[in-house]
Amino acid sequence: MIYKDIPKVQYAVIGGSGTWACEFPEDIGLDKVTVLERNMEFETPFGKTMPFKLCRIDGSMTIDGKERIFLTVPFHGWHGLEPYNTPSEQVFWVFKEAGVKNIIVEGSGGGVNHLLDPGDIIIPTDFIDFTKRRSHISAFTNKILRMKDPLCPALHSILYKNAKEEYKRVFQRGVYATSEAPRFESATEIQFYNHAGADIVGHTMIPEVYLSRAIGACYAGLYIVSNHAEGLVTNWKGSSIFDWYRECALPIGRIMIKSIAQIPAEKNCECLSYRTDVPDRITNRIKNN
Ligand SMILES: [Zn+2]
């Protein structure tokens, strides 16, 4: 159902394959979480969005005793297995209009670092963009976006703390390489990503990480390693990626809810200072030429 008015909220959760196997947040089993609205679709300049939910976390669960209202959308806003029709831009248009300031996301990826095993959790600190997609940053901001600390350190530490309560092996440093969806990578591509400094590869951090900065929101993500990336470990006999998705849906859902509840009103981060205004005299010079 199309909603004309986008609710004003400061918090958002983008769901990914971490909660693919459950209905988020209903199946998580936390009675302090209420779904206020379902099936909220919005028209955006980039097309109609996937259905969002509007949810509330009761103040008895939050860090400051005040309720938290958040928007959530599953599957990274993708309408299918391929990111047709700029779904991330649709989602971030809604976040921009809503006034969202804190975005946490979850997903899965292939372990590029051979020390990672399927079932490990990684909360990355940086990214590399290996996609070929066109950037739509200019539809969201005319500022120059510096990519220092692209994953908000404050949100990162909250995700890490909550992930440690659910998982034994949680890595708090790492580089997420985004490759072009929907296919996985060749063994040689993975070797290249490895040499470039990547620890995990997935399809979703681009463009989310820079669109967050474009709209003035902090962003961090948590990913389960669902498989060894191609050619890296050839004798793995463990679970398939879909087994991991079944197992991780509820714990990752809990991590997301607890993390939203624990985001303080005033965070200790500099994310917004990494957005730079272009001086007027430069802007005018560009316009006049
Ligand atoms: Zn931040």
Please, what is the average pLDDT? Answer: 95
State the secondary-structure class: alpha/beta
CATH architecture: 3-Layer(aba) Sandwich
User: What low-confidence regions span 5 or more consecutive residues with pLDDT below 50?
Assistant: none
List the helices and strands in order: EEEEEEHEEEEHEEHEHEHEH
- Largest beta-sheet characterization: 11 strands, mixed
Assembly annotation: single chain
Rg, rounded, reads 19 Å
CA(first)-CA(last) distance: 45 Å
CATH topology: Rossmann fold
Fraction of residues in helices?
25-40%
Summarize the structure.
With 289 residues, the chain is of the alpha/beta class. It is built from six helices and 15 strands.
Essential attributes:
single chain, 289 residues, alpha/beta, Rossmann fold, 11-stranded mixed beta sheet, 6 helices, 26% helix, globular, binds zinc ion
Structure description:
It is a single chain. The chain has a single domain (11-287), classed as Rossmann fold (3-Layer(aba) Sandwich), CATH 3.40.50.1580. It has six helices and 15 strands. Strands 1, 2, 5, 6, 7, 8, 9, 11, 12, 13 and 14 form an eleven-stranded mixed sheet that branches. The chain has a two-stranded antiparallel sheet with strand order 3-4. Strands 10-15 form a two-stranded antiparallel sheet. The chain has 289 residues and is α/β, with parallel strands linked by helices. The structure holds zinc ion (ZN). Zinc ion binds next to loops.
